[in-house]
Amino acid sequence: MSEPTPVTYLFDPLCGWCYGASALLDQLVGGSDFDVALAPTGLFAGNGARPMDDGFSAYAWANDQRISGLSGQPFSETYRRDVLGDRTRLFDSEPATMALTAVALTAPRREFDVLKAVQIARYVEGRDITAASVLSDVLRAANLTEAAERLTSPDLALVAAYRARIDRARAEMRRFNANGVPALIVGTGGDRRLVQASALFGTLDGLVETLKAA
Prior knowledge:
This protein is an alpha+beta fold.
């Protein structure tokens, strides 16, 4: 049996398009042909964070409806009311990316499961995934107590790993001229190629064919 083909998944946990892509990506991760590694870009962290104002909220909701139409992923009214309607917190993906990094350090095989759980917490349950306490609850519900404890009291190793992952992902985006997320980089060595987000909004067969042809 041949070794699975490496695939790097460039994403941000607050990216609605990444949530839309997760339905198809879940099937890809569950197969044996590809080895998918998560690469958080920090697109909405640090300087990318911003207030949730009325204009941005309306823009996000309109975009979410497009994503739902293409992917079938649900965006609940609870999310619209409690997340997009909240003017007290920043739109900031650093806490969620830190939570995923805590999982990557303690239970790396569970990271994609946690990404899905974090996305469901936001887009379906309407929970505030910019809050470390909410993210800690998500991790504990997934029986990832060690990751939850590290997120609650971040140590230097966790912070360093968080920064290193984002730096690597951003370097990959620059190297392959990726304009945004989600995006996939497939292959090894000099044969690595960028696969655009559109491949994540079709069929599994179509995605697999695209990855094999890249």
